[in-house]
Amino acid sequence: MSQLKNDRLLRALLREPVDTTPIWIMRQAGRYLPEYRATRAKAGSFMGLCENPELACEVTMQPLDRFPLDAAILFSDILTIPDAMGLGLYFSEGEGPRFERPVQDAAAIRALGVPDPEDELRYVMDAVRLIRKELDGRVPLIGFSGSPWTLATYMVEGGSSKEFAHIKGMMYDDPATMHHLLSVLADTVVAYLNAQIAAGAQAVMVFDTWGGSLSPENYRLFSLQYMQRIVEGVTREAEGRKVPVVLFTKGGGQWLEIMADTGCDALGLDWTVNIADARKRVGDRVALQGNLDPAVLYASPDKVREEARKVLAGFGHGNGHVFNLGHGIHPKIDPENVAALVETVHEDGKQYHAG
Ligand code: CP3
């Protein structure tokens, strides 16, 4: 494997010195880029794109060819796991992800097995291998998975949800079955992330998009506990370098201390927390990744620059900041604003790392 030419991301996630603040963007390969829309049209569907390693590699590279980003993120989706478990994932236009066969009772949940990542999810591992080859050491590749709780919400609800009626009903009425599902998912996520690392992922991130819907007590029991198992089970070194693990609970700003207690290397922050406060709370235990409001990118380039500077100044001097949005970039954003953002972070970030 070739030497990394830009390792700012890995260094910042491990709170090591860097020349300037690294930046990547959640959903950086997505519909705001015309070239992404063209490749997606060629693939026919979103899942067709994910399942084709050449096309998945092509869209992974697209944002890097436009902007000097400090990381690539595997182009895939968190819902590949339930699809590999046999639930039948499909995307209906304007409705988001759906499952043909959701798991809504104990019998369906007890019948689930742990998929073999190099078999049912081989297309993901092939994409990782191809992307690493194509990157040729330009920047590191981030692998990812959904958290057990977040995956379970889609599997039980059959798609996106606002109320979480089925899964929360089950969590309260039949916690043993809920824990069984989360435990199978934790084993699956560990195997999946370790296969991505073996295939070439150099950092991994766990997306807990719906952990913030839980009460504090249930967050610990039904989400955090299983992310802890993932942190403990993931391979932390590959190719002679540490593989940082990032945990991101959207709406989880109140739980940063207990998230850091899992032993992860970094926490993703959404935009509802103040990054200066977050840093005071976690101290030097973990790096922080975030946390510009994605809606700032609807404003003028000058406003984008101003708001980006506030996030940089909020984290302040020293090691351990990776710039990102607090959640995924919206499809209607002008790519020119992304260019302004990346340039500002690299230019203004320097002053926080001098000396
Ligand atoms: O960040 C990246 O560039 C990597 C790619 C990535 C995608 N999904 C591509 C995608 C990642 C890391 C994800 C994770 C993901 N997927 C999450 C966790 C992160 C988050 O956003 O909270 C979740 C909850 C999903 C499930 C999912 N996938 C939903 C709800 C949707 C529909 C959203 C929509 O806007 O239609 C998807 C589809 C999806 N995943 C798209 C992309 C680029 C858009 C699909 C398209 O091209 O039509």
UniProtKB/TrEMBL annotation:
Pathway the protein contributes to: Porphyrin-containing compound metabolism; protoporphyrin-IX biosynthesis; coproporphyrinogen-III from 5-aminolevulinate: step 4/4
GO cellular component, one term: cytosol
Entry-linked CDD domains: URO-D
PROSITE patterns in alphabetical order: UROD_1 (PS00906), UROD_2 (PS00907)
Catalytic activity: uroporphyrinogen III + 4 H(+) = coproporphyrinogen III + 4 CO2
Top-level taxon of the source organism: Bacteria
Keywords from the UniProt entry: Cytoplasm, Decarboxylase, Lyase, Porphyrin biosynthesis
EC number: 4.1.1.37
Site label Transition state stabilizer, positions: 77
GO aspect biological process, one term: protoporphyrinogen IX biosynthetic process from glutamate
Identification of the protein by name: Uroporphyrinogen decarboxylase
Organism: Ectothiorhodospira magna
Lineage: Bacteria, Pseudomonadati, Pseudomonadota, Gammaproteobacteria, Chromatiales
